[in-house]
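Contributing: when you submit paired examples, paste them exactly as shown. First protein:
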Amino acid sequence: MTRLNIIFAAALAFGASAGAAVAQDESCPREGGDAPLTLHADWIMKGWERKEGDPNFVFSQKLSRYYDLESTKGVFYDNFAPGDTQLFRDPARYGANWEALQNATRSVHHGLTGGQDAIVGDTVASTTLGFAGRIDRLDGKIIAFDGRSQLGWECTGGKWKIRHELNYAWIVKPESIERFLGRTGTQQ
């Protein structure tokens, strides 16, 4: 082997091992507090919760942990979304769409109802869960709903971020979901 070939082979081997080390440093957790299913539960129970007296809801401040707000790649669908459309491609626009509804509430409370599951790979994951919620509006109206959520996660910079979102909810009587409100955890 010539000296040039040896240098080239060494550089190639170093590059491959450095690439593996970088990829390993950028991996996302599969278990624990930052794993997709736990994040999904927190997204509902912390991200979308609103208590009486909370400051104005600003999506980019409250939910940036869960979304890559610099990206315009994704699909975000929610049949409960306010406004003229329920389908968005840009997470920042999707989130801003919810601000008026959230800020017109006294409180928004959720609870998990079951159906939690996760499929987690190295760079993508899919999670699903059932949830219920109660919206107490400033005008006195109460809106209770039951729903299902499926999120597609992408590992970005060592953190899981929502890239696909499919939420579907339907109106129910408030008393039918009271037992679920405040229920957390991913056990069924």
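Second protein:
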Amino acid sequence: MTVRNSIRVLGLALAVLPGTAFAHPGHELVSGAAGGLMHPFTGLDHILAMLLVGIFAYQLGGRALWALPLTFLAAMAAGGLLGSAGPESWMVETGIALSVIGLGAAVALNVRAPVALAAAAVGVFAVFHGFAHGAEMPATADAVSYGAGFMLGTAILIGTGIGAAFALNKARGEPAGGLMRSAGTVAAVAGVGILTGMV
């Protein structure tokens, strides 16, 4: 599949996403585990970053398949604690957008980073995502159940990224690498759009 076709596929996917995928409204309406579970799915930035973590982990292979997801989840939990104690700032949204750009670029360039370095970078990005989850937690929500919910939602998205990369590789072999890199390129461009407010 060419880059042009990859862009068309992503464009179609974005067209059918609900409007809430581009913002984070309405969190006050759902609290507890259900609200936490839904939260990672309510922002395009979160969706892209977590799928990319899974794809990046698959590209690196070996220990990265468990090290990157677990590091992301642990760092996100720490960020969630910080976010629940303080208001969200523009720096958090900027950090989230930069995570999409950085992870998209890593996938696009098929970066062969040492697992420790890749995990450290993923962990830094995860803190921003966790902070946003914690800061946007409804005041009436139980922090433990809400946190468990958004951790599960995140794990599902990361697992989906790994599973999609595995399925592509199984079905298409070597061409799948090009498709994953094209998807990373498109995601990085989307990250620029998120950063600049165009998306």
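If you have annotations for the second protein, write them as plain sentences, like these:
The two ends are 25 Å apart (CA to CA).
The chain has eight helices and no strands.
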